[in-house]
Design a protein that fits this description.
The structure holds two protein chains of two kinds. By secondary structure, chain A is α/β, with parallel strands linked by helices. Chain A has a domain of about 170 residues: Rossmann fold (3-Layer(aba) Sandwich). The longest helix of chain A has 18 residues. The N and C termini of chain A lie far apart (about 45 Å). By secondary structure, chain B is of the alpha/beta class. Chain B has a single domain, classed as Rossmann fold (3-Layer(aba) Sandwich). Chain B is built from nine helices and ten strands. In chain B, helix 3 packs parallel to helix 5 and helix 4 packs across helix 5. Chains A and B meet through helix 9, helix 10 and helix 12 of A and helix 5, helix 6, helix 7 and helix 9 of B.
Amino acid sequence: MNEARAVAPAPVDAGATAGLLEVAGLVVDLPGSRGAIRVVDGVSFDIPPATTVGLIGESGSGKTMTANAIIGLLPEGATTGGALRWRGEDLLRVDRRRRRRVRGREIAMIFQDPLAALNPTQTIARQVGEILRRDGLARDQVRRRVVDLLDRAGIPEPPRRLNNYPHEFSGGMRQRAMIALALAGNPALLLADEPTTALDVTVQARILRLLGTIQESDGLAMLLVSHDLRVVAHVAHQVVVMYAGRVAERGPTATVLRRPAHPYTRALVDSVPAIRTRTALAHPLPGTPATPVNRPAGCAFHPRCPLARDRCRTEQPAVRSVAPDHWTACHFAEEMADRV
Amino acid sequence: MSETLLEVRDLRVSFGRRTGPPWRRGATREFVAVDGVSLDVGPDETVGLVGESGSGKTTVARAVVGLVRPDAGTVTVDGHRLGPVGRRPAALQRAVQMVFQDPRSSLNPRMTVAAIVDEAWRTHPVSAPAGDRTAALHRLLDDVGLDTSVARQHAGELSGGQCQRVSIARALAVKPRLLVCDEAVSALDVSVQAQILRLLVDLRVRHRLSMLFISHDLGVVHQIADRIAVMRGGVLVEQGPAGDVLGAPRHEYTQALVGAALELNTES
């Protein structure tokens, strides 16, 4: 099973897609005590330029591993298959130097816990300015640019905050500093892994608004990884739903949420507790999310699925198109009744 | 029999916070976590307590179950004033049970589910079943939607959702009047969160339970609470029927909270 590179199932969507990044049949295997564990199993989707793609899933869905594979932060011993086509070159096959050049400059990432991601022993200015200094900018130029970046990230009175350390910032301000740091390399793609999960709701709303503004004004592409459908629905143009390391469904956000073509997506939508209505309790999905360690045969979702029948237990559904730009990995998507 | 089951009056809880570096025994400054909170929970009623981090909602919960000692104010259950855990009469201690946020750290991973429930019965022998304990255990597991085979498993082998069901079974084992749930579904995957919420709603009816349900998630609270109380900075800023507080919030902080909360709009 360690020959992940050789097995690469790459049913790449035919036709020239204008993706900035094309994730094509991505496979990630992690070493386990009983052989390799396939945590990402043939995942394909595109991130078009200036578009926010939401990557949604529960624990064990492989969403974070997919993002880590893109930025090149997989754990030691991980093997990969498929392709990550970035502006025409495959990031899984470029050499180390090119990889490092891409990371932080062309593709940047922000994390759930900015306190863990920032260096506690260095000032905010030093960390945000690191990439600029490395590019050979003069001291006063770096300073000017850092002030500008902090300002864009919504940090009030940036000149006074330059010599602060991360612990002197609140949670929301740290995430803003993290965003400034990510923007310093002038990236074309920003990966955001649960960027607001650790924050209070009022702060979350502000950070999401900030990300939306930056995405639009810079024409940035963004991959927003989240377990919270509400966050994804709020900012993403397109959504990719993952389950047990595979894509369950993907398409334009509004379509996927209103007319899901996969029973798992439908269940996720129904599980979101609403503030105005009591709906989340109607028909909770039985069981717990499948994990890559004990992924059921056939369709991984079949033990929890209301539509499941014999075919689902044996035959893994291919990802197929049900409408332009709308893809599902369900044998029986057509049978999904319209909401009554 | 009083109208209210739980009565919290003018509760004040503070913590000493040391100022200056740890190696210098400087003055400690007082931090008031809860400042004059009054709150009632009626029989069979579920009250949701919401607020952001640092608002004091968890401290209220801990004062109610007796895990922190209030500076001032009273906590009364069924007309009996409660002291801290250990100084409470067993019957009152039993009447108030708690379900915590992280099911994995609130259960001993090396104990079997049967042993966890049995420990609750040994602590409160009054509530222990008179006859066949195994049969009673199986009834209890069935009640929280667990297969009876789980009884022999260790808590460490269970999923997050299963652990939370065991926590609930442990609380129910001693037949409480009031269940205090502190972010009891916040650490769960959404599909599992819906199951546990559904379970709590069913149980409160079946067992005629009152609940103090604490959460930062307004949507979650709305699924279960009859009334909602909103806290900020240790103070209760608004309380009322759930529909009113969320539908037409009066306090500007509640308005900000409701305004910032994301909704999933699936209407075409």
